[in-house]
Amino acid sequence: MKTILLVEDDEFIRDGLKSILTLEHYDVIDCAASKEAEELIQEKIPDMAILDIHLPDGNGFDLCRSIRKTMSFPILFLTCRDDEISTVRGFESGGDDYVVKPFRVRELLLRIQSLLRRSTITASLQNQLTFRDIVMDIEKRLVMCGEQIINLTPNEFKILQILLKNTGKTITRQMLLENIWDVDGSFIDDNTLSVHISALRRKLGDNGAFIKTVRGTGYTINKEKYLQ
């Protein structure tokens, strides 16, 4: 069940929207002011937020900017102001959509569905790292090379993840050593790191060749090898 944060100071509108959204099987957390909204977000991060612009302790634009400092869930503005300046301010503050009161319920629900769908797709893409035919699913802790599952140890997975996240950049051995630990929480030493790199290359087969050694420095994803 998706959670929606509803921030609306008009009690009649807030209660009506909460009832509608609940009937659509959304979990709704609601409030009437910016400060309370920020407190609710700290307790539970919603899947999206619906913000009124005029609030008793500020405005929706400032609340949106505050949210955007640390969070990226979709934000829809709900307001009675239908002027271009307000619309632009809404998007500039980090909003994703803008609905003017009075609104048609069906249209609002479709906009909510669209924002949540786009957010789900984006989150899915952010959980994956790819290079050529190698796909790493970070959430599932799964690496595939074509149709084949590659079984990696936790440290091999971490090394590959760091390299894929920094494709085209040289990652020093020291950077890897600072981010990789063994199962007991001890630091991996330099020789053990070399063993992990060799094992990773071997398990990836021909694809392991894209892990290029930068002599005296560290490793990099060798993009040029596959651009020729």
Give a description of the structure.
The chain has a five-stranded parallel beta sheet, with helices on both faces. Strands 8-9-10-11 form a four-stranded antiparallel beta sheet. By secondary structure, the protein is of the alpha/beta class. It has helices spanning 11-23, 34-43, 60-68, 84-92, 105-126, 154-165, 173-179, 190-204; strands at 3-7, 27-31, 48-52, 54-55, 58-59, 75-79, 97-100, 128-131, 134-137, 142-145, 148-149, 171-172, 211-214, 218-221. The longest helix has 22 residues, at 105-126. Residues 182-186 have low confidence and may be disordered. The protein starts with a strand and ends in a 7-residue tail after the last strand. The protein folds into two domains: 3-126, Rossmann fold (3-Layer(aba) Sandwich); 128-226, Arc Repressor Mutant, subunit A (Orthogonal Bundle). A hairpin with a 2-residue loop joins β10 and β11. The chain contains eight helices and 14 strands.
